[in-house]
Amino acid sequence: MALRAAELLRQHAYVGGVWCAADNGATIDVRNPFDNSLLGTIPNLGATETARAIAAADDALPAWRAKTGKERGAILRRWHQLIERHSDDLALLLTLEQGKPLAEAKGELNYALSFVEWFAEEAKRVYGDVLPTPRSDQRMMAIRQPVGVVAAIIAWNFPSALVTRKVSPALAAGCTVVLKPSELTPFTALALAWLGEQAGIPPGVFNVVTGDPAPIGCELAGSSVVRKLTFTGSTATGRLLMQQSASNIKKLSLELGGNAPFIVFEDADLDDAVQGLMASKFRNAGQTCVCANRVFVHASVAGTFAAKLRAEIERMKLGNGLDKDVTIGPLIDQRAVQKVSRLVDDAVAKGARLLSGGRLSEPGSLLFQPTLLDGISNDMDIAHAEIFGPVVALSVFESEESVLARANDSESGLAAYFYTASLERTWRVMEALEYGIVGINTGAVSNEVGPFGGVKESGVGREGSKYGIEEFLELKYACLAGKSFNSAR
Fold first, then answer.
1. Most buried in the list 38, 155, 287, 317, measured by CB within 10 Å?
2. Alpha carbon 77 to its chain's center
3. What is the pLDDT of residue 489?
4. Where is the Aldehyde dehydrogenase domain (predicted)?
5. Which residues pair with 393 in a beta bridge?
């Protein structure tokens, strides 16, 4: 691994300012999804080591929350500077452990940096209020205080951005953090923790535990010391963490699965819609929670749209993310390949037309071809499942009313997209879609300014934006009484 700064490859967990192994010495191999080569190992921690990380975060909490927002923001700015300085190495590390093309990895690093910068500034903007009082002998106020120790559990698909989108607002708010990265992609998170250490984040304020997610997650959710849990991952795991957290009624942010509709109306600019779909669908080989999942195209433009889309798909190059011309990398593991293959096979068996792709580029690899299916009907599994792979499944619709009913017919409610030239339709459809995020004439909706999160079974809470820091704060109301208030008048 040709890193300019070899120190960025950390193969230990980080607890209380100490880089440590598992108590029993157990490790987990971390492999490159492109060629299955061994990148290194991480400690396989359990409940005992996780409890120590929680205790370290609790011990560090009083001093960290006592700092002013300006002081915490200054440390975050130094962290931002170091991440930026090492962004080429971090992008290489990210591509090696996750598989996405290097250009995408660099884009993700810029996205990750945006959250550190944003919340370094927001640290100074945690406001309270003086409240109007119903009685002349009282004065009332509301203040915001850090919630306390935060557990952050993240998925493997965005190993840098998910770290900074959770850790930055938590630290800015005055909380301390125990982070659990995916065991599939831990090295980027560990590198970011090392850079945080260099930036002056005090010991215990930012801890990283690695290993089997089951015992670690159970300890984090069940701990009464942890007062907030933030998680990005599957709906099934989010539901389990919510149940485990019920014993101590901790604050939760859950960013869970999506099933995004992508609607192309008859008056849409088809070239723009194709480009928007390509950007949304094939980023990270389709392994994103907000990527287009169910594509609905008006019958009057369906043929033209499919032809334009097929031409774009067939220009893509599948392969090693480190190769300059590659635009799409491997899926994360064999389970992902099996799921995508099953959905495609089921659709074809039930009458879908395979216009492009549909199989592995090389037997035994994780390189699934960019795929286009047409003629999707409601009896096919792909019409309902979150694909999480590089497969476009096209359906035809006749009316706005019918496509809205189909778009909203989902337990998920994270992101939705539509293309139209009509201003009236824009407002009408945007308000009717039962989703937390709506992209209108764009396939790219994620940034540090917009609140990221969903409704229904896609989770609770919002990340990023001015609203994101609220998830790590508690509101305290104070009522002060005194007879002298009246005489002061």
1. 287
2. 22
3. 53
4. 19-476
5. 373
Cβ 59 vs Cβ 230: under 8 Å:
no
Catalytic (active site) residue 431: no
* Burial of 221 from C-beta contacts in 10 A (0-12 / 13-18 / 19+): buried
pLDDT for position 100: 98
**Of 197, 255, 400, 457, catalytic:** 255
Residue 242 near residue 253, CB atoms below 8 Å: no
Single-letter amino acid code for the residue at 159: P
- Cα-Cα-Cα-Cα dihedral sign, residues 31, 37, 40, 46: positive
Distance, in Å, from the CA atom of 350 to the CA atom of 149, rounded to the nearest integer, reads 50
Task: For 111, list phi and psi in degrees, rounded to 5.
Answer: -65, -45
Convert the pLDDT of each residue in 420-450 to its tens digit: 999 999 999 999 999 999 999 999 999 999 9
Q: Which residues have a Cβ under 8 Å from the Cβ of 37 and sit 6 or more positions away?
A: 31
Amino acid at 380: M
Q: How far apart are the first and last CA of the chain?
A: 73
C-beta of residue 92 within 8 angstroms of C-beta of residue 109: no
User: Distances from the Cα of 20 to the Cαs of 14, 30, 207, in angstroms?
Assistant: 6, 17, 11
Is 329 within 8 Å of 101 (Cβ atoms)?
yes
Which SS3 state, helix, strand or coil, does residue 269 take?
A: coil
Q: What is the DSSP string of 71-139?
A: HHHHHHHHHHHHHHHTHHHHHHHHHHHH---HHHHHHHHHHHHHHHHHHHHHTT----EEEP-SSTTEE
Ordered domains of the chain (ranges, CATH): 6-256+458-476 (3.40.605.10), 261-440 (3.40.309.10)
Number of residues that this document lists for the chain: 489
CA dihedral of residues 125, 131, 132, 138 (deg, nearest 10): -140
Tell me the C-alpha to C-alpha distance, in Å, between residue 466 and each of 111, 121, 124: 16, 10, 12
How far is it, in rounded angstroms, from Cα 65 to Cα 270? 52
